[in-house]
Design brief:
The chain has about 450 residues and is mainly β. The protein folds into three domains: about 210 residues, Jelly Rolls (Sandwich); about 170 residues, Jelly Rolls; about 40 residues, no CATH class. It contains four helices and 24 strands. Strands 1, 3, 6, 8, 9 and 11 form a six-stranded mixed beta sheet that branches. Strands 2, 4, 5, 7, 10 and 12 form a six-stranded antiparallel beta sheet that branches. Strands 13, 14, 15, 17, 20 and 22 form a six-stranded antiparallel beta sheet that branches. The longest helix is centred in the N-terminal third of the chain and has 19 residues. About 35% of the residues are buried. Bound molecules: calcium ion (2 copies).
Length: about 450
């Protein structure tokens, strides 16, 4: 019972923190964001889940956009079938921009996502259309609009049967907004005309989907052929440097690890965030395999690997540890690769690192700090474990500390020969009187 009360208390504390960080000047946020001749006035602030299917009267309540009456401005309105929002890109000058703004929406907790559907035919004669989806919230560095989705030119092609004037079946997108938990955000759709076909949007939905890791231990082997990054992971800068690789840790059969490609820009970093970690109240551990070598022609250029952690779903991160890639550093696992050779680790050219994940952490970040010619870093078997006890590791020298009924009950998970050398220590008296009745029945 103590443990239950304890976690309930933590929940209350964390919700209070969320509430405390909510923006207080939502009205000024709105006026700062709406551009051009957007309709002004009072607008409802919604709380997710919030959806808009564009099937009603245009403009949808509390949405705004460009002046959609001017023939000289790219504009948004309904599709001819009146079931999609439509951005006219083909009837305006090249480079003309069109914006469609969602209402302000409060994201009440972790693991909310923005889903939407889009459709855009690629016209080979006019392949210069561009589109992005941007978010505004007080989480965003510099208080500007942050791109969370983008398609340009040839890649702005839904390949779904779209025509110049009508949408196809649509391409479904789903964007992780966990880091905006507790904040009020606004989403805008931003089209830039290349004199191409219309861009269509539908089924806007900001809602909760559990994409977290809930059972432990959990290992990401990067062995799937699904698109990078894996489900629940996030590549914040949509960096092209993190990629799949064919090398498996320690020469194991199969395929897959991730690689921080040779990022050639000194002073840049590449980041990759884990899924949301439901680690409970005692934290856990992170372990992973890595392989790293310099590139000989550019020695002593190197990259460091940093592990950062967030207690607010990825809104803010703090540095936990740095693994040094400098000559003699603990990140290096192999001799420098000769000129013209891409480092590909052999079975003995891997190492494993383990660090504690403190209580309260719910996202971890892998981040490299790069120098020109710093070489290739491989990462595999990213494993999370959950601490079930407040302290101890279960060894004779460092037994698990059992201090209440809930923890006492966990000992049942350590039966059998595989747990025969697991040690526990009672750190206080535990009152089981309230369980007596149940046992006698
Ligand atoms: Ca619709
Ligand atoms: Ca692997």
């Amino acid at each position: 019972m103590k443990a239950i009360l304890f976690s309930a208390l933590l929940l209350i504390v964390s919700f209070s923190l969320l509430a405390a960080s909510l923006p207080t000047d939502a009205a000024s946020l709105a006026s700062a964001n709406e551009m051009g001749t957007s309709p002004g006035g009072e607008r409802t602030i919604y709380t997710a889940p919030y959806s808009q299917n564009f099937n009603g009267t245009w403009m949808p309540p509390d949405w705004t956009g460009n002046d959609y009456t001017s023939p000289f401005v790219a504009y948004w309105t309904y599709s001819d079938s009146h079931t999609w929002a439509r951005c006219f890109l083909g009837e305006v000058n090249h480079g003309t921009q069109a914006y469609l703004y969602s209402p302000q929406i409060t994201v009440p907790g972790y693991m909310y996502r923005l889903d939407f559907k889009w459709s855009h035919m690629l016209n080979a004669l006019y392949p210069q259309d561009q589109a992005s989806v941007e978010i505004y919230g007080d989480q965003v560095t510099g208080y500007g609009w942050e791109k969370i989705w983008e398609r340009k030119y040839q890649e702005f092609n839904s390949n779904d049967g779209a025509t110049e004037l009508n949408p196809g079946s649509g391409v479904q997108e789903s964007i992780n907004l966990t880091r905006f938990a507790g904040h009020t955000v606004q989403i805008r759709f931003h089209g830039i005309s290349g004199y191409g076909p219309s861009w269509f949007i539908d089924d806007f939905n900001l809602h909760y989907v559990d994409t977290g890791i809930n059972s432990y231990p959990s290992t990401q082997t990067f062995s799937s052929s699904t698109p990078f990054p894996p489900t629940g992971w996030r590549n914040p800068d949509t960096s092209t440097y993190w990629r799949w690789s064919g090398a498996n840790a320690y020469g194991a059969t199969g395929q897959g690890s991730i690689i921080d490609w040779d990022n050639w820009t000194t002073g840049t970093s590449t980041t990759l965030d884990t899924p949301f970690l439901n680690l409970g109240v005692y934290g856990g551990t992170l372990s992973f395999d890595h392989a790293y070598a310099h590139y000989a022609p550019y020695e002593p250029a190197y990259k460091d690997l940093q592990i950062l952690s967030s207690t607010d779903g990825g809104g803010n991160f703090s540095l936990r540890t740095t693994y040094s890639g400098a000559t003699g550093g603990n990140l290096i696992t192999a001799p420098a690769a000769p000129a013209g050779v891409t480092f590909s680790p052999g079975s003995t050219q891997w190492a494993t690192k383990t660090i504690q994940i403190p209580a309260g952490v719910n996202i971890l970040r892998f981040q490299t700090q790069n120098q020109h010619g710093s070489g290739y870093l491989y990462i595999d078997n990213v494993t999370f474990t959950k601490n079930l006890f407040p302290s101890g590791t279960g060894t004779e020298a460092d037994p698990y500390c059992v201090s209440n009924v809930s923890e006492f009950n966990l000992i049942r998970n350590y039966l059998g020969s595989t747990s025969s050398r697991t040690y526990f220590k009672l750190t206080c008296d535990i009152d089981l009187t309230s369980y007596a009745t149940a046992w006698y029945q």
